[in-house]
Amino acid sequence: MSRNLLCLMVFTLFITSCNNPLKEYVNQEEDYQIIPKPRSLQVLKGRFEIDGNTAIKAEQRLQNEANYLAKLLYIASGKKVKLNTKGNIHLKIDASLVHQEEYILSVEYDKISITGKTPKGVFYGIQSLRQLLPAKAETSNDIKELTIPATLIKDAPMYAYRGMHLDVARHFFSVDFVKRYIDILALHKINTFHWHLTEDQGWRIAIKKYPKLTTIGAWRNGTIVGHYPGKSNDNKRYGGFYTQEQVKEIIAYAAKNHITVIPEIELPGHSSAAIAAYPFLSCFPDERSKVPENMMSEASKKAQENNQPKIVQESWGVYDDVYCAGKEQTFTFLENVLEEVMALFPSKYIHIGGDECPKGNWERSPGCQKKIKELGLSNEHELQSYFIKRIEKFVNSKGKNIIGWDEILEGGLAPNATVMSWRGNAGGIAAAKAQHQVIMAPNSHCYFDHYQSKDTQNEPLAIGGYLPVKKVYGFSPIPPELEKSKQKYILGGQANLWTEYIDSEKKAEYMLLPRLTALSEALWCPNETKNWSDFKSRLRHFRLRYDALGLNYAKHVFKDTTQAK
């Protein structure tokens, strides 16, 4: 190549770069409306354009993330983004980063790099990049000039456990909706999906050794109408369940979104559906199930008259008929169930419930009283502790650990249990002081089945309570009264979506959003960096993303001046 030709090429490149309007484009603060707010974000000059030359370079272990990003960009631009070794978007791992979920996102006018300590960190960098695109990019591929503002973001979450729960037992939700739910969690950088699969009102996971759990336990003959205890019974058969193949499908889908799925198999209480399928699990198999205020369906009344005393519950609340702690058959059953569940779920945790277990049947059961005497226990609370500890020992033998609601503290805490504190902070504080790991989910801030407005007459029916977005945003998993040396036991927090009064997918979305968006920032950001006014401003932009995705969400926070301050 001649010297003159080389000089001409260099000059041409120089002129081209100088004349590139995207290089010197001056971005505004409103171009960076990311939730949860990154720890460090620089507003820089320049914009990166997604065009026919855009390509992604990624090492083999980041192929899932590369494919995810390519799909996002295709949806946004209508242009297929190639995966090759010369891409101008580079996904990479940097083992020197400190936090497992840390990422660095660098956007310049001519290149983008997303670096993480792990693939999960890279995935969260992609989620932040996604939010730098216009909201309509979520579903539109007709944006003529799709550009991303230049920035340098360095970010990592405050808490390792950031969870969201879904109760599919009171009301059943389709596989497609569960995947959509997981998509929503991924957008918010939530890393754990707590799947509440069994209840008094329905058993939702197929267990091969006990087929009646789904042929009988997954279906109730009716549901109360209106608020508990109900005005009537609708007499409509209701139910559904997930096959083991569907469970595997959902777990795999969540894994691609870097979300761990934790199953919950309730015990020893909230077990009416299992008892209806296998009455021997009750202390009193021949006693009839009761429904409050006699709001039982006609089909269940007839079944009881025909010598089928146990029913899948048709009303909400807490029931005396629980797993019998005085029978070895009960533990054989639960171990067999848990063995199948643990084989399906890669999670190191299995949630075993442990909440709201009435002791009335145990008090009058000869078998339970005999067990108390044999073990030298003081009372039924210690019998429950024995129950939980025995289950924990079995779960631990399979290489997994249990999580339980804070009632598992009563009568003595199982040695390796993690406590999920829902009745305020007290249980979590007690567990942390006892050097047990804790997940905070207080009903005061984290129960998304509560009303979002004080004007309940104009709201869909809910269980009660009032939980606006602003209060969720104010949630901090670490209670201020917990001594500093014990704060390390608080893994993070979680919100719960109980579905007694949530009977449709649209309503589930309505109760979830925008409270989940507030929760995501509460669990990602240190307390000292949180600012309600700033969040509220970014939420107005984020709302456009809900609209683009076709999500049904509550709009109170956008109208209520008391939440706007």
SS-based class: alpha/beta
The Cα radius of gyration reads 27 Å
Question: Could you describe the largest sheet, including whether it forms a barrel?
Answer: 8 strands, parallel, barrel
- CATH architecture assignment name of the largest domain: Alpha-Beta Barrel
What is the total tally of β strands? 21
Number of H/I helices: 20
CATH class of the largest domain: Alpha Beta
- Per CATH, the superfamily of the largest domain is Glycosidases
Query: How many domains make up the 3D coordinates?
Result: 2
Arithmetic mean of pLDDT: 94
Name the beta content range: 15-25%
Low-pLDDT regions: 4-17
Q: CATH topology of the largest domain, what is it called? A: TIM Barrel
Helix content: 25-40%
Q: Which features does this protein show?
A:
565 residues; TIM Barrel; 7-stranded mixed beta sheet; 20 helices; 36% helix; elongated
Structure summarized in a few sentences:
This protein has 565 residues and is α/β, with parallel strands linked by helices. It contains 20 helices and 21 strands. The chain has two domains: 137 residues, Chitobiase/beta-hexosaminidase domain 2-like (Chitobiase, domain 2, 2-Layer Sandwich); 404 residues, TIM Barrel (Alpha-Beta Barrel), CATH 3.20.20.80.
